[in-house]
Amino acid sequence: MRRFSWFNATALTLGFVFLYLPMVILVIYSFNASKLVTVWAGFSTRWYGELMRNEAFLDAALVTLKVGIVSSTLATVLGTMGAYVMIRAGRFTGRTLFSGMIYAPLVMPEVITGLSLLLLFIGIGLDRGIVTIILAHTTFSMCYVSVVVSSRLVSFDRSLEEAALDLGASPFEAFRLVTLPIIAPAVISGWLLAFTLSLDDLVIASFTAGPSSTTLPIKIFSAVRLGVSPEINALSTIMISIVTVGVIGASLVSKRAAVKRQEEERAAVRT
Questions:
Q1: Backbone φ and ψ of 102, nearest 5°
Q2: Greater model confidence, 113 or 261
Q3: Is residue 270 in a domain?
Q4: Which residue range is the domain that position 173 belongs to?
Q5: Statement: residue 53 has pLDDT above 80
Q6: Residue 1: pLDDT above 60?
Q7: Number of structural domains, the chain?
Q8: What are the two backbone dihedrals, phi and then psi, of residue 232, each rounded to the nearest 5 degrees?
């Protein structure tokens, strides 16, 4: 077994410093009393109050949440259906084209995706707004859901479905009562991944958004071009806090589920 050398410790420390030191500095300066983000003038929560009164940021955040929830839900449904067809349908005419169309957004540059969707919406006469952003985010995030769900379906024990079918369940009932509960963690992971991608997207949303449908990344990017304000630091700190709480909560839930599963397995062995 290899020892943890000083070189490895130093490389790991430098890596963590490179990744997280800018975030720490951002959080610290979000409590800066000065309007200048590079000059410390004392501790203050003034900019959090200013942020709560900034209607432009609040409206953009509301639009982002609406788009994220709806698009991630649609992407999860469509991505799960696509993964199920690719894994369970076997070989069929057009399978290669079907799988290529699903996985294409994984390797397609976002600029090309955004531009092609913009031309499509213009061609069919669909005005840009929340609907077009939802369609665009669903298009590029469903492939990620398909990858996650497909990896779970590959290792799924099909004898469980066959047993349900032998007991009189229809194929849909077998999927709803047996398959879906077992692959639920992968489906939830796909939804969370799609939601995160939607919240983070700037390029595709900038092509498909309209004047009255500005998302939070677009609003932040537009504000930063005029100079970084303490309100942006406060907003970024809130987002970092939400992500941190979500990650810690998910880790605790997963750990409790694993412990409960181990206890059930031990109880089954004893009986």
A1: -70, -45
A2: 113
A3: no
A4: 55-230
A5: yes
A6: no
A7: 1
A8: -65, -40
d(CA 60, CA 28): 24
Average pLDDT over residues 134-149: 91
pLDDT, position 269: 66
Task: Say if 3 falls within a structural domain.
Answer: no
**What confidence tens digit (pLDDT) does each residue in 85-96 have?**
888 777 777 778
Own/partner contacts of 136-139, CB < 8 Å, gap of 24 or more, are: 136/204, 136/205, 136/207, 136/208, 137/67, 137/68, 137/71, 137/72, 137/75, 137/194, 137/197, 137/198, 137/201, 137/204, 137/205, 138/71, 138/74, 138/75, 138/78, 139/105, 139/113
User: With the CA atoms of 156, 162, 167 and 168 taken in that order, what torsion angle do they form, in degrees rounded to the nearest 10?
Assistant: 110
Q: Which has the closest alpha carbon to 216: 207, 206, 225? A: 206
Q: Where is pLDDT greater, at 246 or 31?
A: 31
- Evaluate whether residue 217 is within a structural domain: yes
Least Cα distance to 216 among 190, 242, 188 occurs for 242
pLDDT for the residue numbered 2: 59
Return d(Cα 193, Cα 144) in angstroms, integer: 7
For the beta carbon of residue 48, count every other beta carbon within 10 angstroms: 17
Whole-angstrom distance, CA of residue 229 vs CA of residue 47: 9
Contact 161, 170 (CB under 8 A): no
Domain annotation covers residue 236: no
Interatomic CA distance for residues 208 and 29, integer angstroms: 33
User: The CATH number of the domain where 217 resides is what?
Assistant: 1.10.3720.10
